[in-house]
Amino acid sequence: MRPYKHPAASELVLERVLYALSDSIRLDIVRHLAHVECATCGELDGGRPKSTVSHHFKVLREAGLVLTESTGTTHMNTLRHADIESRFPGLLSAILSQGAPAKRKAGAKKAKAA
Amino acid sequence: MRPYKHPAASELVLERVLYALSDSIRLDIVRHLAHVECATCGELDGGRPKSTVSHHFKVLREAGLVLTESTGTTHMNTLRHADIESRFPGLLSAILSQGAPAKRKAGAKKAKAA
């Protein structure tokens, strides 16, 4: 099995990191990884279909957020905390420290412009 | 002209804010607005086509980042700094304090997984 490719820390792009974290499934995966040393895809998929989760891991890898290593048939994922921190100081902790996002209510009233 | 609709501060969703800032044009608009009290769309469009810029302003408004008010035929935009700060403390400054993103080089080498 070919090893996954990952961008170097110096190649990380802010917009790509923000895009990777702009999806609630990917944000959940990163939140989970922030609290463990590493985790298999199965531990992080939340019971979602493999094809869906594979796409999300690809986005996270390409943004430089997650390192995936193959050990036999298992894929082990690690948060690239040090790389993100060296490239974008304070960014990841500022995002992950935010509380759980508010759920949008159907028909919720929006504030109008003054 | 009907006023633009804007979400209330309590309705802001983290993923939507991150998505809005995951585009370099929108990130530039927000960076610009962070340094001025307000600005017209024309001052922020960087010479881009109106249709393109209108879409970006819509995404920024719906994420709660920008307030657009119509005064006659002019649209005046303001960064909703206080609302974003009250909902997501430290987030906006952590994002805007990052340097200009690295440009991706064609054929740039990628680090392989260890």
UniProtKB/TrEMBL annotation, chains A, B:
<keyword id="KW-0805">Transcription regulation</keyword>
<keyword id="KW-0804">Transcription</keyword>
<dbReference type="InterPro" id="IPR001845">
    <property type="entry name" value="HTH_ArsR_DNA-bd_dom"/>
</dbReference>
<feature type="domain" description="HTH arsR-type">
    <location>
        <begin position="16"/>
        <end position="93"/>
    </location>
</feature>
<dbReference type="InterPro" id="IPR036390">
    <property type="entry name" value="WH_DNA-bd_sf"/>
</dbReference>
<keyword id="KW-0238">DNA-binding</keyword>
<dbReference type="InterPro" id="IPR036388">
    <property type="entry name" value="WH-like_DNA-bd_sf"/>
</dbReference>
<protein>
    <submittedName>
        <fullName>ArsR/SmtB family transcription factor</fullName>
    </submittedName>
</protein>
<dbReference type="Pfam" id="PF12840">
    <property type="entry name" value="HTH_20"/>
</dbReference>
<dbReference type="InterPro" id="IPR051081">
    <property type="entry name" value="HTH_MetalResp_TranReg"/>
</dbReference>
<dbReference type="InterPro" id="IPR011991">
    <property type="entry name" value="ArsR-like_HTH"/>
</dbReference>
